[in-house]
Amino acid sequence: MARAIWSGYINFGLVSVPVGLYSATQEHEIDFHQFQKGTSDRIRYKRVNERTGREVPFEKIVKGHDVGGGEYVIVEPDELDDIAPGKSRSLEIDTFVDLDEIDPMHFQKSYYLAPSDSENASSYALLRDALAKTNRAGIAKFVMRGKEYLATIRADDRVLVLETMFFADEIRDPDEELGSLPRKSGAGKQLSMAVDLIEAMSGEWKPAAYQDIYTERVKELVKSKHQGKEVVYSEEEPQATNPTDLVAALRASVEQARKNRSSRTQKTAAKKTTGKKATTKKAATKKTAAGKKTAAGKKTAAGKKTAAKKPAAKKPARKKAA
Predict the structure, then answer these.
(1) Which CA distances in Å does 31 have to 27, 35, 45, 215?
(2) Confidence at residue 230, expressed as pLDDT on a 0 to 100 scale
């Protein structure tokens, strides 16, 4: 079993549930080291005093906040620990909200919550099932690794999931960051065709259908270079659609999407039909074999029965002596 990266209590009302926090996701990036080009010399980073040029050990490094004018306020690690809230290892649920009301932009990273001991598993299950039934999420705050997090606690099948969240002031205003953005499109025909395209391309969400192609290509590149081979990928860069060609592009896209959907539907139907035929043929084969076996059994039994009914041959009578 995985090791908990945080442990504490979920508190809601007067109920406390002991839980452990576990990573729910893992990335599959390929690690690279840095080298000086043309050599096999590794590049290393050192913590160096910029005035003396000497390396400084980690335990002698403290943090400083820039307050302007080249002045810094130095803060010791112990001072940060003393003011950290939630030292009681508490996930205090402040309120419950409808899960659908939360903008996904607020979500940061997912974790699993599991009961810390079997004695309190029923309390864990009770909270999980109640959240699932009401489609609500508990909003809480907690401290982990020297940082306070805002979090939601929600039910996902048999497990409670904690999502760390961005605070409201951590989300940037798009108007301030991006400047002028387009207003609503007034083109009714184009909008209608764009809606048709979205509908034609709509389907069920199947996470397993999506693979990290780039990482696979990086693995192939590394493997090929290790074997002395060369890998070349040639893909054209996409180009922006000319506004004058937008209607034609939308119309062609809708037709192509409908063809693709029809093709997928036919393939699915063919697979189902093939599966049904195979099942029917298998059942018929079993039935035929059973019929042959039964017929043979009856024939043998009948043969034995006929032999039993066959009258015995009469012996010739002996003549009496004169």
Answers:
(1) 11, 13, 16, 11
(2) 82
Structure tokens at 262: 């029809």
Q: What pLDDT score was predicted for residue 130?
A: 96
CB 263 within 8 A of CB 200: no
The lowest-confidence range among 114-118, 128-132, 170-174, 180-184 is 180-184
Task: Tell me the CATH number for domain 6-26+61-169.
Answer: 2.40.290.10
- What pLDDT is recorded for position 179? 84
HEC secondary structure over the chain: CCCCCEEEEEEECCEEEEEEEEECCCCCCCCCCCECCCCCCECCCCCECCCCCCECCHHHCCEEEEEECCEEEEECHHHHHHHCCCCCCEEEEEEEEEHHHCCHHHEEEEEEEEECCHHHHHHHHHHHHHHHHHCEEEEEEEEECCEEEEEEEEEECCEEEEEEECCHHHCCCHHHHHCCCCCCCCCHHHHHHHHHHHHHCCCCCCHHHCCCHHHHHHHHHHHHHHCCCCCCCCCCCCCCCCHHHHHHHHHHHHHHHHHHHHHHHHHHHHHHHHHHHHHHHHHHHHHHHHHHHHHHHHHHHHHHHHHHHCCCCCCCCCCCCC
Q: Say what the pTM is.
A: 0.68
Q: Which residue type occupies 306?
A: T
**Does residue 56 contact residue 49 with C-beta atoms inside 8 Å?**
yes
Pairing of strands 107-115, 63-68: unpaired
Chain-centre distance for alpha carbon 13: 32
